[in-house]
Design a protein that fits this description.
Length: 148
């Protein structure tokens, strides 16, 4: 009997972003409508809501395939994912004129400037958060689904 391990790996990978992203979108929509935040940030969240769960699922499938050869920890595998997502996200955001690279930092929506000195610590924080999410949540889902 075929147990479909890659399908189970994909489903384990998409679980968390599919659960969390609509909640984040709800908060941004409420902030836009109730607090009257002038920046249409919910429009920017639509693209990640479509891409991030699929990317998590595909990344978990890649872990399942690579784990049989290299035997590396899932947390480390997950911590590498921002290295893939950040350049893709920056490329899409610059082409949509949402993000611009200024002389002193990143400029979002031509309104919010983030100094380059904060970008690296923020990126390292994201990598640490992804490490923990993949180690404890995705890893436990993989064990529950009997694929790790």
């Amino acid at each position: 009997m075929n147990t479909h391990p890659y399908l189970r790996a994909y489903l384990a990978g998409i679980f968390l972003p599919t659960l969390v992203l609509p909640i984040i979108l709800t908060f941004f929509i409420v902030a836009r409508i109730v607090i009257q935040v002038p920046t249409p940030i919910e429009q920017v969240l639509i693209f990640p809501m479509a891409i991030v769960p699929s990317l998590f699922g595909l990344w978990n499938m890649l872990y399942l395939k690579a784990h049989t050869r290299m035997n590396h920890p899932i947390g480390l595998h997950g911590a590498v994912l921002p290295l893939v997502m950040a350049p893709i996200g920056a490329l899409v955001a610059t082409h949509l004129n949402v993000l611009q690279f200024g002389s002193h930092g990143l400029v979002w929506f031509q309104a919010c400037a983030i100094p380059y000195a904060l970008v690296v610590p923020g990126f390292l924080f994201a990598m640490a958060a992804y490490y923990l999410v993949w180690k404890y949540i995705v890893g436990s889902l993989n064990r529950v689904l009997d694929i790790a």
